C-alpha cells in the first residue's frame, strides 16, 4: 500500500511535501496545500516553475471560484507520487502551491482536522 503523509498546518490547511523534477533534472521538494476545490493537478509559483526550467505546454483560460477568467501558462513536471513518477500539468500562478483533485484521483484522502492532525493519501490499487 502506497501512503503519502502530511499534516494540518496551524493555518488549518492540509499540506504534504512532494518532490518535483524538471526536464533537466533539477529537483525541488515543495510543501503543497491539498485543495479539493481545485479540479486539476498542481499549481506552483511562477518563480519555482522558472527555477525548475519546466517545459511550457500551452496557455489555458482558467475559471476562478468567483467566476472570473484568467490566462494561465501550463507546464509539464515529473512528480514523485508515493514512490512512482507521474508526469502532470502544472499551472504557473502567483499564489500558494496547490494540489488538486486530478492529482488525487485514484486515491483515498483522510484528514484529522485539528492543529497538527494527520493527513494521509493512500494510492488505491
What does this entry look like structurally?
8% of the residues lie in helices and 58% in strands. The protein contains two helices and ten strands. It has helices at residues 46-51, 101-104, and strands spanning 2-8, 14-21, 27-34, 42-45, 55-63, 69-81, 84-93, 98-99, 107-111, 118-123. The longest helix is centred in the middle third of the chain and has 6 residues, at 46-51. 22% of the residues are buried.
What is the topological layout?
Blueprint: E1 2-8, E2 14-21, E3 27-34, E4 42-45, H1 46-51, E5 55-63, E6 69-81, E7 84-93, E8 98-99, H2 101-104, E9 107-111, E10 118-123
Number of strands: 10
Categorize the overall geometry: globular
By CATH, the architecture is named: Beta Barrel
What is the CATH domain class?
Mainly Beta
Q: Overall pLDDT, averaged?
A: 95
Largest sheet: 6 strands, mixed, barrel
Helix content: under 10%
First-last Cα distance: 8 Å
Strand residue percentage: over 45%
Order of helices and strands: EEEEHEEEEHEE
Number of domains: 1
In short:
This protein has 125 residues and is mainly β. It contains 2 helices and 10 strands.
Give structural attributes.
mainly beta, 6-stranded mixed β-barrel, 8% helix, 125 residues, Cathepsin D, subunit A, domain 1, globular
Amino acid at each position: 500500500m502506497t501512503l503519502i503523509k502530511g499534516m494540518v498546518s496551524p493555518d488549518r490547511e492540509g499540506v504534504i511535501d512532494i518532490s518535483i523534477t524538471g526536464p533537466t533534472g533539477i529537483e525541488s521538494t515543495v510543501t503543497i496545500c491539498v485543495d479539493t476545490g481545485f479540479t486539476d493537478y498542481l499549481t506552483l509559483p511562477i518563480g519555482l516553475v522558472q527555477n525548475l526550467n519546466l517545459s511550457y505546454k500551452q496557455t489555458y483560460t482558467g475559471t476562478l471560484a468567483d467566476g472570473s477568467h484568467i490566462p494561465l501558462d501550463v507546464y509539464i513536471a515529473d512528480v514523485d507520487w508515493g514512490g512512482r513518477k507521474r508526469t502532470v500539468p502544472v499551472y504557473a500562478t502567483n499564489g500558494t502551491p496547490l494540489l488538486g483533485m486530478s492529482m488525487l484521483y485514484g486515491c483515498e484522502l483522510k484528514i484529522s482536522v485539528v492543529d497538527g492532525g494527520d493527513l494521509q493519501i493512500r494510492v488505491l490499487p
